[in-house]
Amino acid sequence: MIARLLQVFGGLALFLLGVNMLSKGMEKLAGNKIQDWLDRMTSTHIKGGIFGTVATALLQSSSMVMVTMISLINAKLMTLEQAISVMLGQEIGTTLTGQIAAFKMGDFFFIFLIAGLIMLEFTKKGEYKKYGEILMGFGILFLGMQTMTSALKVLMDLPAVVDVMAYMGQHVMLSVLAGTIATAVVQSSSAVTGLVVALGLAGSITLPGAVALLLGANIGTCFTGLIAASRLSKASLQASMAQIFINVVGVLIFLPFIHPFSNLVALTATQLGRQIANAHTIFNITVSLMMYPFVGQIKKLVMKVIPIVDEENGRLTHYIDEGQLSVPSIALNEAFRELLLLKEECISMVSKAAAALLIYDKVSIKWVLDREANYIDPVVDQLDMFVNHLYLTDLDERQQRRAFQIKSLIVDVERIADLAENLAESAREKQKKDIEFSKYGDRSIKELSEYIVASLQLTYDALKTQDTTKARLVIEREDEFDHLYMKARQRHIVRLKKKICKPNAEVIFLDTLHNFERISDHTENIAEKIIDQNAPAVAPMPAPAV
What we know:
Layout: H1 2-30, H2 33-40, H3 45-59, H4 62-74, H5 80-93, H6 96-101, H7 109-121, H8 126-155, H9 159-170, H10 172-186, H11 189-201, H12 207-229, H13 234-254, H14 258-265, H15 272-291, H16 295-305, H17 328-358, H18 362-391, H19 397-432, H20 439-465, H21 468-497, H22 506-533
Helix pairs in contact: 1-8, 1-11, 2-4, 3-5, 4-5, 5-13, 5-15, 5-16, 7-8, 8-11, 9-12, 10-12, 11-12, 11-15, 12-13, 12-14, 12-15, 13-15, 13-16, 17-18, 17-19, 17-20, 18-19, 19-22, 20-21, 20-22, 21-22
């Protein structure tokens, strides 16, 4: 008996591995398109529902769609109401796992395994490897189902097992509870669905008992999501609460009618495994259709339970979120958005600090110094750690290159912020020591600072759109800046000799020029990285030490 139980759990592990490989392969194939599609195709509740169904069915991952929605809500590109409509479609899309599992493949699944292995190991093209991962996922999924089914058939020869399964079929509340607990423990409704279908294929369970287990799995998957969301953003928590409401209400509506519902589903197929899969599909479709007219009311209820509050005070990052790490393509997009926000902040810091050197502004200086210490430094640390964690996930070559670009750009952005801090400190020291530049010195500072800020803005535009033409223009501007910088230094020396400039102003003036020159160097670094990132790939970028 122990050997057969191990075979069941081993088959379940294979099934989950197959679902995971299939999902990851589809995610790599879709790449950044998931976020674009979700952003464009949720303008109405119907469109959102259709997208949720199709995306979840194709990607074989409701969590991937959920993570994408949360990212868009955080970025204010999607409302909670739109997310709920996608969620209702998502409920339908998840039922495809059960339908796939109900197929009796015989030994044909070996074809998937062989074809997948050939594509993964003997092809060099990245696209073929993604298809190989998908095929291997299918093959391993069916291997897991066959392993579970054969073991369960043997176990059904034991009277004790028969008695337990019969008891659960008669006591549906116990089965619902078992399904809820099992899903919470294994953290996967797909695993429980696969196991229940395998029980059906082995003739080891009654249809009402199977339906009750699936209803419990629907509740269990919500609460595991809630536990994860409680550590993340308010948007995560609201989305998870909406999912809980939808699934719990759906189960409560169906629970009194499990036996009549099972009798109806029994007419849809002759094979018990397929009947179970059909029951799962019919239940989720019915609940989603029932809930569609009440999307607005669900949103209002969720927002009453979890009110919208300004998270700015408690949360420094705007886009990145631990939950995104399960979907690398989304995590990379959000890390890049966070980087752009840092870059934008650096432009303001340099601009305000440089202006304060010409006309003393205590408020601007304090803002720059506070921003560096209380926003830039902690967010840089969080973003750097986030990208380090990304390297531990399964990234393809293109994603590795992008992660490496973000990692290296963080350094340049942080250095620019440090240099803005230096400028602010110089402005404060200039005021404290009552130092004045000559009108010619002021003119040089104004000319160079305006040039630098314009270069920073151009760099930001190039980075945001990955525009290599603008990046090359930034590099050309850096060469021109070097010329302006040397000319400003030479003129300063001439003014010193003519005693136009005061000697006590020299240190701050030259430090300011040097800080401008270093900022210009970092804009050039960023531009070069944009060009490198968009050059044809030659080899995977090495992961930095974490």
